[in-house]
Specification:
Elements: E1 2-3, H1 14-31, H2 54-65, H3 71-80, E2 94-95, E3 102-103, H4 104-107, H5 109-117, H6 124-127, E4 148-152, E5 160-168, E6 174-178, E7 185-187, H7 190-201, H8 213-216
Parallel strand pairs: 1-5
Antiparallel strand pairs: 2-4, 3-4, 4-5, 5-6, 6-7
Helix pairs in contact: 1-3
Length: 232
């Protein structure tokens, strides 16, 4: 396992996630009026009733995957309780239910094979760069097979939202990434990845992340607090 050796900056709670997602949902409805080019929103309205079985389901999935899921993702699950399935997201966007998350190797074996056939590797000095200074060509193909798929952000099968269990920050967050044909966007936590995705999903940019932290100020992303952010 590789460690970033820096704090992820995540400072949220399930309450913050609910506020963030509510803001996202509300603005998504407004933004998509007359904007067919944006397609369906990534996040759907969270259910009103609590899921009393969620904790046991999370533990069961952690045992099956052999990992401890990061706090920001667990908080997201508590707030949003996504119910997507992998077949259901084949040509769509959304987040998988806790029972449906699995590794790229299991869900997309062809994609994992292609990554290994065209292997890429990056030294720590370049790999552990986040934010707008990140090079989207930096990748470690050896991580992909065990990457945990938690959702999709585009229509293509390869446009996956993943967690890399091989990379942990000093506060226990997992590196999160958007896989794409043209490059990979990586963030030090699932929370930062979703903050960035909210900006894109609300039609504020015509390209995939990263977006500068200054651009996120005053948007829904502010509802999901960060502390001591060290990337731009």
């Amino acid at each position: 396992m590789t460690t970033n050796a820096r704090d992820s900056g995540y400072a949220g709670t399930p309450v913050h996630w609910r506020d963030f997602l509510s803001c996202w949902n509300r603005e998504a409805k407004q933004t998509r009026q007359g904007r067919a080019d944006l397609g369906p929103a990534l996040i759907v309205k969270d259910p009103d009733n609590p899921d009393v079985s969620l904790s046991s389901r999370i533990r069961a999935r952690e045992r099956a995957l052999g990992v401890e899921l990061p706090r920001s993702y667990v908080h997201f699950l508590a707030a949003a309780r996504p119910d997507g399935t992998w077949p259901g997201l084949a040509r769509s966007t959304g987040l998988l239910s806790i029972d449906a998350i699995d590794t790229v190797g299991h869900l997309d074996p062809e994609g994992a094979w292609i990554a290994q056939a065209h292997a890429l590797d990056t030294d720590d000095e370049l790999y552990f760069v986040y934010g707008v200074n990140q090079d989207d060509a930096t990748m470690r193909s050896r991580y992909l097979g065990d990457a945990i798929v938690v959702g999709k952000y585009g229509d293509s099968l390869y446009e996956q939202i993943v967690l890399f269990p091989q990379v942990r920050t000093s506060d226990g967050e997992m590196e999160a990434a958007l896989l794409g044909w043209a490059g990979t966007f990586r963030a030090p936590s699932f929370a930062e990845l979703m903050r960035q995705l909210s900006y894109q999903d609300l039609g504020r940019a015509d390209h995939v992340p990263p977006y500068a932290q200054t651009l996120l100020v005053g948007t829904c992303a502010d509802r999901l607090p960060q502390k001591d952010v060290w990337w731009k």
